[in-house]
């Protein structure tokens, strides 16, 4: 048995910074539609008091860790907007292309503002990355009129997201460091969380060849390279990159379409992160936790679906000599009939908290030389099962 790593005697044990990551924890459209002028008595709703209590308990527990910020690497919402499969009319008519685009914007305005408010009322600083559900959910090819619509109007989905997550109320950019003059200027950014921690957020959804590809290339990749070169020159102790999709594959997955970066370890994204010494790559998508390493970079795929009773978050605490990680889950139980979404009934209305607090799923310590020590539970390095 390997001896546990402990900080050298006399080391300063004062945390430099703490952040939380909670991708995919909603992954559904959850909000009280009764606040909309288009809602009338007898119309469906996408909210219940039980679900609200579970969301409140989850975010209150995150707030209790006293994080400097909360990262959400994608899938803030269900996002299948521009449809009204039950004919509710809540976000307006969807008979024509123009009406469907308007319905996307209305739904985005309601659900994103509701999402952001949950963090704001707790004083939590939110830094999010774009997920597949935030742009209508896969696929985006020509297999049916709906997937074609989503691809054709990808910029509408991305701009609606940006208005609430990467822009100020005035419409000006929230983040100064971003890949300007590229299609990703509204959805990718870099920000110093503290003098010792740099966060880089990527938009990994690139429209080309009649589809949307999971990749980072072109102008966004060039900006990433420049940003990492600058961080290396400045000797920033901890560089964290967040994107929605795993790069190293396979990983554990639950109720996921299994999206991952094309090319994996050989992709331009991974080669760039490895070349310039990225410490930690955080992603969501797979609704489970897996730690993998390659080329000196540690990837942690994490997150869990609150509507399944698996709400999960990661806590990262930066010190001078290490980055401590732990993943916790706030267990819940599914119950009740399903709630309304634009595509029909999905989220369980009575999903509720079980117990009085979270359970630890795994922990580890990342050292400046990229060694991962003190690995426990789901943060033990993953070995894919043989096929």
Give a verbal description of the structure.
With 387 residues, the protein is an alpha/beta fold. It has one domain (17-377): 4-Layer Sandwich (Purple Acid Phosphatase, chain A, domain 2), CATH 3.60.21.10. Helix content is 22%, strand content 25%. The protein contains six helices and 18 strands. It has helices at 49-64, 97-120, 145-152, 154-165, 218-233, 268-275, and strands spanning 17-21, 69-73, 126-129, 189-194, 197-201, 205-208, 211-214, 238-242, 280-283, 290-294, 297-301, 310-318, 323-333, 338-341, 344-348, 352-353, 359-366, 372-377. The strands form four sheets. Strands 1, 2, 3, 12, 13, 16, 17 and 18 form an eight-stranded mixed β-sheet that branches. It has a six-stranded mixed β-sheet with strand order 4-5-8-9-11-10, with helices on one face. Strands 6-7 form a two-stranded antiparallel sheet. A hairpin with a 4-residue loop joins strand 12 (310-318) and strand 13. It is globular, with a radius of gyration of 20 Å. The model has no long low-confidence stretch (mean pLDDT 96).
């Amino acid at each position: 048995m390997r001896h546990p790593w402990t900080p050298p005697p006399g080391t300063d044990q004062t945390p430099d910074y703490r952040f939380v990551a909670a991708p995919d924890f909603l992954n559904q459209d959850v909000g009280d539609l009764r606040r909309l002028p288009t809602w009338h008595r007898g119309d469906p709703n996408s909210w219940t008091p039980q679900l609200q209590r579970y969301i409140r308990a989850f975010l209150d527990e995150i707030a209790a860790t006293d994080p400097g910020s909360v990262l959400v690497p994608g899938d803030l919402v269900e996002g299948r907007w521009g449809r009204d499969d039950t004919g509710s009319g809540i976000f307006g008519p969807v008979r024509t292309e123009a009406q469907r685009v308007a319905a996307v914007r209305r739904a985005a305005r309601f659900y994103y503002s509701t999402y952001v408010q949950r963090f704001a009322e707790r004083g939590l600083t939110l830094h999010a990355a774009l997920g597949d559900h935030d742009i209508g959910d896969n696929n985006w090819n020509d297999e049916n009129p709906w997937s074609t619509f989503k691809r054709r109007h990808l910029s509408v989905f991305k701009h609606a997201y940006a208005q609430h997550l990467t822009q100020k109320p005035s419409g000006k950019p929230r983040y100064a460091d971003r890949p300007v003059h590229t299609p990703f200027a509204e959805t990718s950014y870099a920000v110093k969380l503290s003098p010792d921690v740099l966060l880089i957020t990527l938009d990994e959804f690139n429209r080309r060849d009649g589809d949307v590809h999971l990749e980072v290339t072109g102008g966004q990749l060039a900006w990433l390279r420049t940003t990492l070169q600058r961080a290396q020159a400045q000797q920033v102790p901890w560089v964290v990159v967040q994107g929605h999709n795993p790069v190293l594959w396979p990983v554990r997955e639950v109720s996921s379409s299994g999206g991952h970066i094309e090319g994996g370890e050989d992709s331009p994204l991974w080669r760039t992160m490895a070349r310039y010494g990225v410490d930690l790559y955080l992603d969501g998508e797979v609704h489970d936790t897996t730690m993998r390493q390659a080329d000196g970079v540690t990837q942690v795929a994490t997150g869990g679906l609150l509507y399944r009773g698996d709400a999960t978050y990661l806590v990262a605490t930066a010190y001078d000599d290490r980055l401590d990680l732990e993943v916790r889950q706030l267990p819940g139980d599914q119950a009740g009939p399903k709630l309304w979404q634009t595509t029909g009934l999905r989220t369980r209305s009575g999903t509720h908290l079980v117990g009085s607090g979270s359970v630890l799923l795994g922990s580890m310590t990342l050292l400046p030389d990229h060694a991962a020590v003190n690995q426990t539970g789901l943060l033990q390095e993953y070995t894919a099962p043989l096929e």
